[in-house]
Specification:
CATH architecture of the largest domain: 3-Layer(aba) Sandwich
Largest sheet: 7 strands, parallel
Strand order of the largest sheet: 3-2-1-4-5-6-7
Structural class: alpha/beta
CATH topology of the largest domain: Rossmann fold
CATH superfamily of the largest domain: Glycogen Phosphorylase B
Strand content: 5-15%
Distance between the termini: 14 Å
Number of helices: 14
Helix content: 40-55%
Number of domains: 2
Radius of gyration: 21 Å
Oligomer: single chain
Length: 368
Amino acid sequence: MKYIIAGGGTGGHLVPALNLADEIMRQDKNAEILFISDRERMGKKMIENKGYNVRAIDVYPLYREFRLRTLKSFLKLFLAAGQSISIIKRYKPDVALGTGGYVSGPVVLFSAIMGTPSVIQEQNSIPGLTTKLLSLWAKEIYMNYPGAKMPLCAKRKIKVTGNPINFEKSGTSKGTILKELGFDESKFVLLLTGGSQGASSLNIALFKLLEKGLLDKNIQIIWQTGKNDFSKYNKIIDELDYKMHIFPFSDKMDRLYSVTDLIVCRAGALTLSEVSAWGLPAVIIPYPHATGNHQYWNARYYVEKTGTLLLTNNELNDKLLFEAINTLYKDDQRRLKISDAMKRLSLPEAKTTIAKRIIRLAKTDYNG
């Protein structure tokens, strides 16, 4: 079977695409996969590093308000449409998958128009404009959040599957990982992560409360700063009287989740799906500039269902962050209840479920 996968613009759209590609290859040994991306180097490189073939098209995001570059985006859309049609004609896919973002728009649309079964995987609680438009043509729509606002005609196509995260336990014991970090097995572990790029406002608030010595000294801290802030904070952590592991980025977050008692994080859809799968109590601080404020609504879903804590970025400071962390640190029973509720919300088999449905769709169409 042949599969075209289009998604990108941000890692939040590309990572699910790569996870699903890996799972399709695992389930369908004869699978051929072609990725379509924009010409942004990082995304194209991520795909190539995983060993997949990739073709780039000239497409730019469409802005909701009119700007000069909106006109440029519309002009590029016509070019991207022609490029997409050409690729689809030559490749002849059995299924087209879009994981959101502007790259998936022309690929999924013209695949559907040309008779190829097309599906969408939407990560967020507030679907993007591309997803809403493509839902009119898609055969199936895979979502994480029940009740996400979609066009009425698309409701019957929605399958609440969860987000396709990699939820595989590392096989390394908690004690071994803590020893590698230089941590004490008997002490509490706090993880702060702002996502792959880091989050400066989270880093500033954490540094200030550590500088003031507000947190209990028995708390051990795993701090993912992001590349841009790493050198700044790495130079001064020796001045802080805490046991700490600081790093810019890790592709082995599963190891860190497995030893974490409490996480401070953004509200990216994949991050929250991972936090839920691992059953982590959390202080969630949504990124305030996400399209449609979708990170806030992602966070609200988990807060309402589990009782975990939410801070807005506008109110964030060292005092409020300390109070939120301390509230959960001091209350073992509350953390346990949140952890159990997080696990109940989780759909850790999403990757397997979605890939199975995509393969079935490809074979059904192939067999007529």
